[in-house]
Each structure stands twice: as C-alpha cells, then as structure tokens.
C-alpha cells in the first residue's frame, strides 16, 4: 500500500548546465539555503540560486537562476563540495586536494590554504571545538589506513589528529569524537579521542558501495548485508528496526519520518515509524541522493531534482480517506513534533 509522501520536482535542467555539450556530467552537489552548487567532470563549479514557488493550487516548482561558474584549472573532476556557511566558504575536493573558495564569487582564499592527500571528506555536524568560526573536517587520507581530522578556519587549516584504522577505510561519517567507518570488510565505530573502537557488523566493500550517514546526534544509518538499512548508535547498538532496501542501494537520505533510498531504477521511501515501504518513484540513471537541511535532492549525470515532501497533515488525511486508520495514527503520533499544535489536535 502506498502513501504519497514526496513529489519529484525538476530543479536544474540539463540545458542550463551544459547547453549542447554532451560530455559534461554532474559529479557532486551541495545545497546551502537557496544556494545550489554543482561540481562537474570537466573541473567546473556552477552556482545557482534556487527559488521555490507555490501556485494557488499548492503546486511547488523551483526556478534555478545561474549566478556564475568557475573553472578550477585542472583536467580532473570536482569530486566533492561542502559548504561552511559560517565561514562563507565552500570546500572543494578535486585531484585529492581540498581547496577553500568563497561561497559567493568562487575565488580561492588569498592565503591558498588547502588540505592535500584527501580521498574523500566529511564535516563534523556535532563539532567538539566550540569555535563558531571553524569547521571540523574529517578526511580519508591517501596514506593507507589513515584518517585525519582538521580544523578549517576562514583562511587557514590546522591538523588536529591522525588516526590509524585496522583496515582501509572507504566511507566515513562523524559525530562529535565518534567516527562511523566503512572498512574493507566491516563497519566500525571509532572514538578518535580515546582510540577505542567497536565492531558493528561485517560488510564487503568490494561487492557493494557502503553507505555511512549521520542521521542525528550519536546515530548513523548504514547499508547493511542483505539489502538492509541498519541504524547504529555510537554505543554500537540499534534502537530502531532496520528497513528493507534493494540489494544495490547507491545513496540514502533522511527526511523525518522517512528514510529515502536510491538504486539503479527507483527512489524508495520507508517509514522510520513502522519500517514499511510507503512509496516508490521510478528514477533511472540517478547517482546522487543527499539531504541538505531537510531538503532531499537527487541527481542524474545531467539534471538535478528535488523530492518535495507533502504536508504531513495531507498524508494523514489521505490515509484516513483510504481507511488506513492505524497507519494514520502511527504517522500522526510519530510526526507530532513536525505538525503545528492546533492541527495535531484536529
């Protein structure tokens, strides 16, 4: 039984990005407020402003206005982008180097501050430093079996810690002092302050792409064996039942109370409240699925789309209209904090 939880809305059409240049592919995206950044395989960053429009009938559309684009001067793809809005900086990973650029004009910082030797990186959304003018960056280093923690300021970077891992790490998420790592054969939780680690469950990174995603304070979502989306806390336990994904999930995102997953052919939506699959949206050639401050964005090589959640009150009404009272109650209670009080009473 399906629920209409999300609508797929186009945000950036291929013509806006590449015109008639077919060789251009989208490699990565970042969204911060209305600012959408796209990194491409030909070493360009594009900056768009996203404007959300609501028609009188309640239909949501997005208008993307191109601000500027910038060539980074290498013959390599831009592989990752992360915004640090407090610093008005965009962290750009290209050719194993993280460069700091200005979020508005995309110019590199004058000091030339950069982090070299990064395979991939992530930001600590639950930072430990307490300095509002600094972001904590965790990189998987090109040095074998090594993770490095950096503090990144407006115009300089500073290494804080280097941690060695029992196997080669291939994906990482951070919460406070805790690293959730996908290694070659298993997932682990590692406290980089104490060095204490805890095994979670086995996983073969040669067969499938690991997924490690921080979904809240001290909690992560992982692609487990047998097509399961598993939840794990920093204590190595699971407080929620797993969701059943397909075997070949490429990406996952959280938009409470739903977990959204992308595979080769579909976007699937599962409820965290009862673990049931609620919606399936056909989506071919997708390779990116991420959530940014509650906005879920998917992309193919050529276009960017936004998954717009339908109001929870509307979802509850639809469930009641189709006599699915139990599901409506579960959703109403579970999503109570996301529904205005007077509407919840009704």
From TrEMBL:
Q: Where is the CNH domain?
A: 23-296
KW Transport (keyword) present: yes
Leader sequence residues: none
Q: Cytoplasm as a keyword?
A: yes
User: Where does this polypeptide localize?
Assistant: Cytoplasm
Known PROSITE patterns for this protein?
A: CNH
**Pfam families, from UniProt?**
CNH
Primary location: cytoplasm
Q: What is this protein called?
A: TGFA1 protein
Organism field:
Vidua macroura (Pin-tailed whydah)
Q: What is the lineage of its organism?
A: Eukaryota, Metazoa, Chordata, Craniata, Vertebrata
* Gene name for this UniProt entry: Tgfbrap1
């Amino acid at each position: 039984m399906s629920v209409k939880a999300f609508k797929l809305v186009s945000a950036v059409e291929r013509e806006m990005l590449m015109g008639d240049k077919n060789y251009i592919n989208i490699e990565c995206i970042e969204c911060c407020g209305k600012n959408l950044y796209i990194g491409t395989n030909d070493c360009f960053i594009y900056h768009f402003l996203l404007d959300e429009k609501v028609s009188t009938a309640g239909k949501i559309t997005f208008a993307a206005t191109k601000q500027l684009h910038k060539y980074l001067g290498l013959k390599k793809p831009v592989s990752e982008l992360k915004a640090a809005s407090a610093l008005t900086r965009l962290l750009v990973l290209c050719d194993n180097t993280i460069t700091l650029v200005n979020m508005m004009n995309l110019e590199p910082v004058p000091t030339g501050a950069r982090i070299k030797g990064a395979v991939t990186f992530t930001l600590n959304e639950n930072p430990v430093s307490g300095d509002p003018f600094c972001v904590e960056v965790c990189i998987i280093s090109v040095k074998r079996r090594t993770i490095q923690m950096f503090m990144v300021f407006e115009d300089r970077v500073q290494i804080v810690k280097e941690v060695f891992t029992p196997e080669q790490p291939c994906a990482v998420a951070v919460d406070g002092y805790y690293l959730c790592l996908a290694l070659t054969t298993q997932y682990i939780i590692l406290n980089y302050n104490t060095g204490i680690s805890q095994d979670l469950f086995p996983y073969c990174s040669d067969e499938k792409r690991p997924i490690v995603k921080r979904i809240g304070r001290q909690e992560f979502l992982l692609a487990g064996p047998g097509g399961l989306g598993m939840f794990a806390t920093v204590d190595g336990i699971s407080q929620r039942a797993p969701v059943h994904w397909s075997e070949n999930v490429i990406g996952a995102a959280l938009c409470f109370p739903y977990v959204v997953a992308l595979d080769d052919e579909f976007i699937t939506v599962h409820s965290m409240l009862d673990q049931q699959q609620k919606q399936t949206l056909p989506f071919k050639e997708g390779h990116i699925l991420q959530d940014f401050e509650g906005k879920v964005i998917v992309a193919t090589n050529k276009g960017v789309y936004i998954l717009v959640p339908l109001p929870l009150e509307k979802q509850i009404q639809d469930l009641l209209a189709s006599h699915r009272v139990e599901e409506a109650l579960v959703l109403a209670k579970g999503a109570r904090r996301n529904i205005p009080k007077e509407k919840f009473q009704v």
